[in-house]
Amino acid sequence: MPACPPCQCCPRQALRATPRTREHWRNIRTDNETIVSEGDLPLGVRAAAYSPDGRVIAVTGTRGEVLTIDVRSGQFRQSPIPDRTVTGLSIRFSPDGSRLVSGAADGTMSVWDARTLEQLGSVTIAAGTGSKTMAQVFAEGNDIVAIAASDGSVYRWDTRIDHTLAYACRMVGRNFTAEEWKDAFGDHPYKKTCP
Predict the structure, then answer these.
(1) Closest CA to 13 of 21, 24, 68, 22
(2) Residue 114's beta-bridge partner residues?
């Protein structure tokens, strides 16, 4: 694993995955062990990741929520708690830092705007098969997510909304219902699925 930048905390050391409902974190200069900033988070941390520029840490919690921390100021932003409160297991930034993808214990993957924490979409992998998602990573830029499942399957999710709508129209042959839209796109404004 690569070394953490000398002026920021290391998420694998500073944020421990425990079942608590609050976590204390510290931003520590590794060259002189000075605490730069610290604070308390209103969630039990399950996974953490640095942004590509090292300025933000994203975490997912025991209820599936997502939170980002500005490592310089110590300020954090939290997403609304999802409708389905399933333990978050993993989180990753896109290569340009504009998006996050989080994985939950029920096999749901969600894509988030990394700045606003608006949920942009979600998908459940291998529903009903007993296979669980093990890891996800942005591949081929900022729009494609590769997802590895516990049964050895690898899935490719194109998260572009236009691609998703075109695929849904081909598969179902009708517009999304309001409920289907909310499940797939959260609070993103409704659009007709099919022309």
Answers:
(1) 24
(2) none
Joined together, the tokens standing for residue 47 give: 């996974």
Q: Whose CA is closest to 164, among 149, 136, 148, 186? A: 186
Euclidean distance between CA atoms 124 and 114, whole angstroms: 21
Mean pLDDT of the chain: 79
Which residues have CB under 8 Å from 150's CB, separation 6+?
131, 132, 133, 134
| 139 vs 89: CA distance, rounded Å | 19
What residues contact residue 87 under an 8 Å CB cut-off, 6+ apart?
Answer: 46, 62, 63, 64, 104, 105
Residue 119 has pLDDT above 70, yes or no: yes
Express each pLDDT in 57-87 by its tens digit. 999 988 888 999 998 888 999 987 766 678 8
- Amino acid residing at 183: D
Over residues 26-45, the mean pLDDT reads 86
Instruction: Name the DSSP letter for residue 40.
Output: E
